[in-house]
Amino acid sequence: MNFHVLTLFPEMIEQGLGTSITGRAMNKGLVSLHAVNIRDYAANKHKKVDDYTYGGGAGMLMQAQPVYDACMAVQESLEKPARVVYMTPQGSIFNQEKAKELALEEDLIILCGHYEGIDERVLEEVVTDEISIGDYVLTGGELPAMVVIDTISRLIPGVLGNGVSADTDSFMNGLLEYPQYSRPEIWRDKAVPPILLSGDHAKVDRWRKQQSLLRTKQRRPDLYEKYMKEHPDAEKDCK
Ligand code: ADE
Question: Is residue 3 within a helix (H) or strand (E), and if so which, with residue range?
Answer without folding.
Answer: strand 2-7
